[in-house]
Amino acid sequence: MSRGVLTSQTDLPTSLYKRWFIKNMQEKHFELLIHRQRWLRTNSSLSNGFRSNTLSKSYQYLSNLFLSNRTLLDQMTKTLLRKRWFFPDEMVIAICSNNESLV
After folding, report:
1. To the nearest 5 percent, what fractions of the chain are helix, strand and coil?
2. Domain boundaries defined on the chain
3. 40-49 pLDDT, tens digit each
4. What cellular-component terms does GO give this entry (predicted)?
């Protein structure tokens, strides 16, 4: 009989420890979920800002590139027309043939 009492007394701390461990794990799990939610909210807003900024910078770069190329094309065209190396009707033919080759 004393053996049964000893067994139950040694099992008691183990069962208390198991209950505490399980409860502690559940609390830790909820804490991790809360921290994860906060992290996702913070980083998703940062990510959206990063995407927006990247798109804006890309648009500015491409816009400047096309505008500078357009300016360069206009300068070349004016120079060729001024020196009479290129005539307006030839320019129309060149533009039309380039557009057809792109399609």
Report:
1. 95, 0, 5
2. 2-102
3. 777 666 666 7
4. chloroplast stroma
